[in-house]
Amino acid sequence: MNVLDAAYDTVHDYPGGAGPLAERLTRLNKDGERVPMSEAVLNSKVNPNTTSHHLTLAEADRLMGLTGDYRILHALAGTHGFVVQRVEAPETGSIIHALLVAAAAKGDLAETIAQVMADNRITGNESGRVSRDVMRVIAALVQVSQHAEAAAERGGA
After folding, report:
1. Taken in order 65, 9, 4, 134, is the CA torsion positive or negative?
2. Region 109-114: what's the mean pLDDT?
3. What is the DSSP letter of 47?
4. Which of 25, 48, 91, 157 is most buried by its number of CB atoms within 10 A?
5. Alpha-carbon gap, residue 106 to 99, rounded angstroms
6. What are phi and psi of 26, to 5 degrees?
């Protein structure tokens, strides 16, 4: 997944979409007052076909913090040949649950590949779908690893 698609998906997969998220993205006006970003501006900033508005690094950082969705970070890392892993141990959940979530994500990836290969060719949009599903599998597998590390630190399962 490329970073532009990741930003778009982060905004549009947020509960309620761009509107509620835009309200949470504030900036300081010339009087030093905090004002929310408009939904239209946020949509333009994450639209890969728009050249007039761009998401800043600070805004991308804020988006990830507000949504808990780190696809932008994973996409940036993947573009440059890296994989990102959270450093702190998960506070809730279990390794079994994380493994089941990863297995479900892998199943979704297999289904996507079957769909895009039905006509024996892959379009750019289909490639993007595959990339997004691959990123979901990677993120889910990292969660399994994090739960294993947390269990080792606790001295148990």
Report:
1. positive
2. 97
3. -
4. 25
5. 10
6. -105, 160
Q: Please answer whether residues 71 and 112 qualify as being in contact, where contact means their C-beta atoms are separated by less than 8 angstroms.
A: no
pLDDT in the model for residue 87: 65
What are the tens digits of pLDDT across the range 6-55?
A: 999 999 999 999 999 999 998 878 888 888 899 999 999 999 999 888 99
Mean pLDDT of all residues in 55-73: 93
What span, in angstroms and rounded, lies between the C-alpha atoms of 148 and 157?
8
pLDDT band at 136 (very low <50, low <70, confident <90, very high): confident
3-state helix vs strand vs coil in the chain, percent to 5: 60, 5, 35
For residue 88, what pLDDT is reported?
65
Cβ-proximal residues to 138 (8 Å cutoff; 6+ apart), any chain:
74, 83
At 51, list the tokens: 């050249």
**Do the Cβ atoms of 133 and 126 come closer than 8 Å?**
no
In SS3 terms, 68-135 reads as: CCCHHHHHHHHHCCCCCCCCCCCCCCCHHHHHHHHHHHHHHHHHHHHHHCCCCCCCHHHHHHHHHHHH
Kindly report the average pLDDT of the chain as a whole number.
Answer: 89
